[in-house]
Amino acid sequence: MERKVKYVIKLEHVPQLREEEKRELSQVTERFAFRTNTYYNSLIDWNDPEDPIRRIVIPTVEELEVWGKLDASNESKYMKVHGLEHKYPDTALLLVTDVCGIYCRFCFRKRLFMNDNDEVARDVSEGLAYIREHSEINNVLLTGGDPLVLATFKLERILKALSEIPHVRIVRIGSKMLAVNPFRVIDDPALLELFEWFNSETGKKLYLMNHFNHPKELTSEAKRAVELVQKTGTTLTNQTPVLRGINDDADTLTLLLEELSFMGVPPYYLFQCRPTAGNKTYSTPIEETIDLVEEARSRVSGLAARVRYVMSHESGKIEILGKSSENVFFRYHRAADPENAGKFMIYRRNPEAHWFDDYTELVEEYKIEGAQRFV
Question: pTM score, two decimals?
Fold first, then answer.
């Protein structure tokens, strides 16, 4: 494996694509930005038009189908200052960059990558000031974009600033970098030293929230990067949407959950794909996905089966619990409105539903403490 990874932002620089494919797909990249790299492209079986890695990063004309919104979860509603989202009392999201190692075609923040946006490092001073002023915030998620796109010295400035805020106890970094360019970790001892310093010297804890979507991403290089980060005392987890044509079959999802647990990277969330513009080709019906998730869970150990199937809805993080012959069951895992905290909801089934808003016939809802009525 060549260690020098080159980034690619134009289809014409992907030699494996035929000229007619490049012409056809140019209409997609005119709307939704394209970015990949030579390492990630090397994982693609270019003889297989349905290759899952290809489907993650190479555009398809299906993305032009009208569907969804650019901000499907209305994140802007919770943006308190520039680049700082505060939706739940104890948690703040700090957007530190508008660039990723690759641009996943199903990204729910693709609006950040449109209009030739290449802001590698955001000014986070307003966000840091907000966090200092809100003592209820005890954990901060660094996101974007991918924070590991930042140069290590820039990431160090942010982590140092957060380490000096007494009420911040946990910092999470949301990143797909170990999947798309593990050499970012392997070849940067300064990054590993930074992680180790944060965990050992600040009295706080660092988490790396990974985004492995398919077992093909779990290469020997990716596993080496995981091991190096683990040695710094950083806790690693994984989250992925369930994606049509990528991981929406029981064998693939089982293998992904299983291998991650073997690596010591416990699966954290399986997300319902957000109804973001361009994403219809990746979205799976909720009631089919319930069966898929339960099938995969039944095949793995309890360590891997801890994963929750959820939606990041405008109103909160909603856990999709299961279904009966007539109904579907939901619970607020985290609620933006305290009145919804712990609420358990029963809706009539809708086989065409891809999102919470697609359910309209509410059967009953109540606080979770009343659940004994259904035991």
Answer: 0.94
